[in-house]
Amino acid sequence: MIKIGEYNTLEILRDTDPGLYLGDTEENVVLLPHRYKPEHWEIGDMLEVFVYLDYEERPVATTLTPYIFLNEFGYLHCSDVNEYGAYMDWGVQKQLFVPFKEQARPMKVGSWYIVYMYMDEQTNRLVGSSKTNKFVSNDTVSVEKFDEVDILVTHLTEKGANAIVNGKHHGLIYIDDIFEDIRTGDRIKAFVKKVRDDNKIDLVLQAPGYRSIEPNANFILDELKAAGGFLPLHDKSAPEEIKNLLGLSKKSFKKAIGSLYKDKQIVLKEDGIELI
């Protein structure tokens, strides 16, 4: 079965005027237009292609890399709005349609939005929705404390950075735990700091507790080497100084230099730390 909105590995069956016809083991076929043909190919070769629906809602293959996949979230640019809805650039030739009823707020040309792509059962076509809360839930949480997770930052508030966790759950990085520049649309790794009794997920960008000591220590070693062996920071430095120079909290910094000092890799001085 050829899957719409996903990558498929298909066999090159024949070359025609419109392009290459590709097929699966169940004799389903799809066209790969000439403009997407690889430079070198032979009948019988296997190709990995993305399959979506063209302007006539027929399956078509491409070697372009889409920005979003079926039943997943993406951060997309609105390229057009008409009387039916909005159209998003998602990396392939045909734009992704977001009907007005699926817009969390009216979309504007030139703006960017977090969008979920799904197959509309009534029309059998790929559509998008910016009403992302419909597609995530914390009723049953599949992550635990200390887990490394993939997150998509959805929006920033005074409280912190809201994110979608592993494409399934809501999560939040509190403002006090943000020590680097993050923005809406960023896809990054994070760690589960806590799963609360109400299933709300607290996130951090560095491994919490003792697990963060080693990577932070290695990071500080790299910064020391890049700075010629000395950094003007110590355990009495202001948190703002540490954050501005290293992007770490003072607590994480003190844990890391304590580990380095214990391992006799640095010397603690009144005006900073020095590499041995």
Automatic annotation (TrEMBL):
Signal sequence range: none
Domain Conserved virulence factor B first S1, residue spans: 4-63
Conserved virulence factor B-like winged helix domain sequence ranges: 220-275
Family: Belongs to the CvfB family.
Alphabetical list of PANTHER family matching this protein: CONSERVED VIRULENCE FACTOR B (PTHR37296:SF1)
Record protein name field: S1 RNA-binding domain-containing protein
Organism, scientific name: Jejudonia soesokkakensis
